[in-house]
Design brief:
The structure is a single chain. The chain is an alpha+beta fold. The protein contains two helices and five strands. The chain has a domain of 93 residues. It is elongated, with a radius of gyration of 17 Å. The chain starts with 51 loop residues before the first helix and ends in a 5-residue tail after the last strand.
Length: 136
């Protein structure tokens, strides 16, 4: 049976991400790690905290780099914090001082979040891990 080549999929409202490339094929024999708690066994790849050079070095070494970022919360220490309208900020997260839920139903908030995806593209991330992606 002949495999059909996938066409790029269109994605609305993501600026430079309007056309996504053919999905990255991950070989079945590779291992992966996702660590959510405890002492880090390997460096965490947070989108804001990881330099583009580090991402490039990892990719040059044959690694697939998935960058973590918060897609549903506002964090007062991030460089884009002042850009979010106060009306989009919700309740604080009990265990995370300086972090509040973000109303992702608002178009202005989603537009700002799309810039986080643009940052992932510009840094060369193979993909993203969008955390906190819901309004509570």
């Amino acid at each position: 049976m002949r495999r059909q080549r996938r066409k790029p999929r269109m994605t609305a409202g993501l600026g430079p991400l309007a056309v996504c490339a053919t999905p990255l094929v991950i070989p079945g024999h590779v291992s992966w790690q996702l660590q959510l708690d405890g002492r880090l066994q390997k460096p965490n790849r947070h989108l804001y905290d990881t330099p583009q050079q580090t991402i490039g070095d990892l990719k040059s070494a044959g690694r697939i780099v998935i960058c973590y970022f918060s897609a549903g919360t506002w964090e007062n220490w991030r460089s884009d914090a002042a850009a979010y309208p106060a009306a989009a900020l919700g309740a604080p997260l009990a265990d995370w001082p300086g972090e509040r839920w973000l109303d992702i139903r608002r178009a202005d908030g989603r537009a700002l979040l799309s810039k986080r995806l643009d940052l992932a593209v510009s840094k060369g991330c193979n993909g993203v891990d969008p955390d906190n992606s819901g309004w509570l």
